[in-house]
Structures are given as C-alpha cells and as structure tokens.
Fold:
Amino acid sequence: MMTTMNNGANPSEDFLVMGVCSYDTRAVRWLETLRAHYDGRVILVMTSDYPDGLAVAYDVEIRRVTVPEGFWRNRVGLGCYQWQYIQPVAAEFPDTYILRTDVFDVVFQDDPRTYVDYDQDWVYVEQEGMRNCDNEYMRGWFSINPDVAPTVFQQPVYNVGVICARGSQLADIAAFIGQRRGRTYADQTELALYMHAYPDAFRSVPLFFSHFADMLDQMQIADARHFVNKENRQKYCVCHANGKTTHYLDSIYPYAPYAEKFDLPQSLRPAKVAIDLTIGIPVKDRPVELALLLQSLLNQTFQRFRVLLVNDCQETDFLSENSTVQGLIKLLERSGSPVTIVQGDQKGPQYCGQRILEHAATELIFRLDDDVVLQPDCVEKLLAVIAEGYDAVGPIYLDPQRPTEDQVIPEGTSLEDRMKVGRVYWKDELFLSGILQVNLHPNAEPVPVEHLNSGFLYRKSAACKAGGYFLDYSVVGHREETDISYRMFRTGARLAVAPAARAYHFHPAYGGIRETKGQQMRQSLWDRDEMIFRERLRGWMK
Structure:
C-alpha cells in the first residue's frame, strides 16, 4: 500500500509524522484521519497509558515517556515538556523530513507529504489563528527571557500549529528552546516566540511561513532568499481547530475510511460525537429574515446542532432559488451543522411544529420562527438552563427597535407599572409573559413559568408526553405554542424563561401567518383560534 511520490523518494526513509499527546479519543481521531491518506512511518510520543492493540491497529511506533509527578498531564500542561520529548526522537532521524503537528485538535485532510519540498532545505512553519499579544502567557515568557525587549513583538504572535523540517533541524530547534526556557506551557507558541526573538539562532535553518508574510520583516532575517513566495505550497492538508473547541473537528471528521476498510475494533475507532440539538424552523416566504436567522446560527457560541427547515412557502421555493440562503446553508453544513429540508403542507405553524417534533433525531429541539435573530450566546444560555433540570426554556424576545426595553425598569417601580412594559396581557392570558417575568426578576436567573411562546427550546420526550402539537387551530396558528407548552407544564414538565438568553423578533408585515389573504380574514381566524384556546383552557382548569 505504498504511495508513489513524484520525486521517487522512499516515504519510509525520507519522511515521517510525529505527534506528542496523552491518550484519549482525539489521539485515535488524529491517527484515523492520518492513516486515511498516508501509509508511511508514524511516531506517537505518549505521556500516558494507551489501549492494547493501538500500535498494531494503526501501524504506529509508540514512545512512552513519563511526565513529572504533580504536573498536568493534559494537552495544555504537556506543552512545557513537548520539546524535551521531540529532541531525542528527531535526533534519531537527522536526514528525514519530520512533520510535527498538534494531536489534540488536528485532523488530516490529505497526504501530509504535500508539505515536503525535497529540493529545498528549509523548515516549513504553518501558523494557526490563535494569537498572543499582551496576555498572561506573553508576560510569563518575558519573565524567563529578560534579555528580549518587548518591542521585538510589534504585532501579535500567532501560534505554530504545523512544523515540517529535517530531523537534525528539528532537534536543534528543540535543543535551543530547551536551553532557553523555563516552565512554560505552550509548545507551539514557544516556537513562534523564539523564532521571532532570536533570529540569529535560526539563520542556519531557513524558514518558510505559510501565513502572515509581514512576519518576515519582523523577524529581521538577513537571508531573505529563503522566503520565496511558495503559493503552490499553501495547500491545507491539515485541518486545525485554531485553539477553539474541537467539536468542530469531531462533527466534520467523525470517521475516515480507514476504520471501515481494515475493520478495526470499535474500541479503537474514533467515537461518534452526538449532535445534541435540532433547531427547527418553519419557513414561509421570508428569505431576508431567514438569512439573518441562519447567519445568527453561524455565530452561535454553541455549534453542535442540526438545522431542520420546514418549507411551508406559498409563492416560490426560495430555499432552492435564493443564492444567499443557499450559501448560508452550505456554510452551516461546512461548519458541522447538517441542514435538512422537509416539505410542509401549508396548514399552519402547528403542523410545522409537529413535523419538526416527528423528524428531529435529538432529544433537544429549539423551535424558532423564521423572522428571529439570536444573540451569539443565546443557544448556550438556553442549554445551561436545560442542564439545571428544566424541560423547556425560552429566551427573551425583544423588539429590534427597542432592544433594551427589558433593562430600563428602575428599582422601586410598582408591579402595576412594571406590567406596562413590554407586550403583556395579564388579565386575558392568566399567565405571565416572558418580558414581564424579566421585569419582575431582573437578575438574569431562570424564571419558572407555566407556558412559553414565540419559540423555545424543549425536550422531545416532554412534548411527546404532552401529546404533541394541537392541530385544530387555523392556518394562522394562534396559540399553538402556548397550547403545547402549557400542556407540557400540566404533565409535569418544568418550564422557564431565561433572561440571559436574548433574541430579536422582527414581525415583518409580510410572510409567515401574514401571508393569509386579507387582514379581516386573518383577524377572523385569530379570533377563532383564541376562542378554541380559551375553551380548552376552561377544560384544563376544571
């Protein structure tokens, strides 16, 4: 299964891949995606015990090392000793090109030998997005390198995620860093810092940075001919999480072909990361508003979710025709959020809600109108409340024209005056609305309620226990969310409003239930739904 290289080099002699890590499933993912593209030599320096059969299953050489007692054994703590472990291994292979990458948050997308230029004798350095400027790590680094003037770093220093060099070069770099530093903790940052601060020490080792060419002047390296523009080398064969959550990599690369091809034991396969949440959105003739909502989903701090769109459009199928919406759907999918479109039947939002409930493959569902925009941490805040034991939780929906109206209630304001702020129908609804609850409880703690509206996050099991959506409302679907959420409450579910979770509800004059022809007809259907709801409410109260 040897891959032929264009220049005839023997991969087993001229190239190897090396990583340093403590064992967890991410080490398996690193090996799994690497072996899907590369059949050459791999050395994994392990700082912890690992499963029997790992070396055989992935044909990897494992070097077991010992981390000092009392020292962190995770990836962050390991950084301070990583160069110490790299040096002896690199010295064993002085003429071999070694690709050293992170293991914790890296997967391979291509053959790693694309990094190698056998006609050049330079160190290839790829810099990832995490940057260091005036932070705790930088201040600590200067404390153990007092001879380096802070003015050396006129710009932020970006971490080095991938290094490709001959073994002799890598060993020299490791030895230099080992001599210079004290107990620091970020190996890839150290490399970037020392390259910038001590350019003379590396002039015998030509460098090529794949990003940020402005760093070349900053490094003040005299022999600039080593930094020719190698645009053809900027091929991303490694996907790096840039210091952010690894859920992104887990969701995009849960498996590579290697595991299936060689029938590896399940214990040695990378774990499938469950997508915890379905975001269900009925879509009805509002492409601009839907695009804003999809963009706000892309910006969420929590990213492990599926998107389920119920196409209830009347006029045009803009989900397939609108280029902006199509582009945002592709971006969501590339970021690890699968998007599924199911056809609605134009019978009202309650039918769309039931479609979402039936099609969702997750226990948690966030049902949203298509004219809503979420603040970036909205989903994260709602999930935090669910984690406290609630079965359904809604955000605070604000008017985009008055986005802070829930925050302007002075202390000492009477209950009667508090109830005048926001859209509250106290006497008619018999329930406190979300905005009223915020005004009564302005400390951002979850507020228990008996019903929710305008879209909320809930447990599928609680909604099914309550009987799902009541389908006898009109195409306007007035009260459909109040109805199901109150029945959830009556069957034992815990409901809350999360004042810390914010969203904006635009209510445009078109699309959605406003597509029902004629204002008089809409009002008639609205009144009909209200009468149905009140009759059901009287039955519940008996």
